[in-house]
Write a structure and sequence with these properties.
189 residues; alpha/beta; Rossmann fold; 5 helices; 7 strands; 17% strand
């Protein structure tokens, strides 16, 4: 029986002349960085006219630095890491760094003012760390302050097995130069 042309859109029904090459995002990033080190890979344009770009070489340098930081703080292969913040080059760096460190990025959006929705997803997905970006103009500062208060107040209640600072989630705040800061009550070594 012949398959109608409209249904032949999957990999199974369309034969390729050459085999598929299975590469991870990181494999592709390494290869493209070697080939085009000075080419811009991401460009961020904001509504206010702000423009920021990053080359493959810069991206790789920042991804390596941040992934090493995450590993040094105890992130292991398979750890779920929550991310909260605007779409930005910093978010791209964090995404690649999480994957390079072996983690799984869990992107979150806060829809309830007190941040309980984010806390519930954080706990439901068994996240061990939280990467937060307040934005270029600190536009997310207030929601983040509320979110951190909610995390502090509710983490112990929701996860009674977190009995000391060593078991608490790692909280990382990102800013313009990707200088990670650890907020005191939440540390994991």
């Amino acid at each position: 029986m012949e398959v109608p042309e409209k249904q032949q859109l999957s990999y199974l029904s369309n034969q390729r002349d050459r085999p598929y090459v299975y590469e991870t995002m990181i494999d592709v990033l390494w290869r493209r960085t070697e080939k085009f080190p000075d080419k811009e890979i991401f460009i961020q344009h904001d509504i206010d006219g702000f423009r920021k770009a990053i080359t493959y070489k810069e991206l790789m340098r920042k991804v390596l630095k941040f992934s090493k930081f995450l590993i040094s703080k105890g992130i292991k292969k398979g750890d779920h890491i929550a991310m909260f913040g605007p779409n930005s080059i910093e978010a791209v760096i964090a995404q690649f760094a999480i994957v390079m460190a072996g983690g799984v990025a869990v992107n979150l959006a806060m829809s309830i003012k007190d941040g309980l929705d984010v806390l519930n997803i954080f706990l439901e997905t068994n996240c061990t760390a939280f990467v937060i970006d307040p934005g270029r103009k600190m536009e997310l500062q207030e929601p983040i302050i509320q979110l951190l208060k909610t995390l502090k107040e509710n983490t112990q209640k929701a996860s009674p097995n977190l009995n000391n600072e060593r078991d608490s989630p790692l909280i990382v705040l990102l800013r313009a130069w990707m200088v990670p800061l650890i907020t005191p009550p939440y540390r994991r070594y």
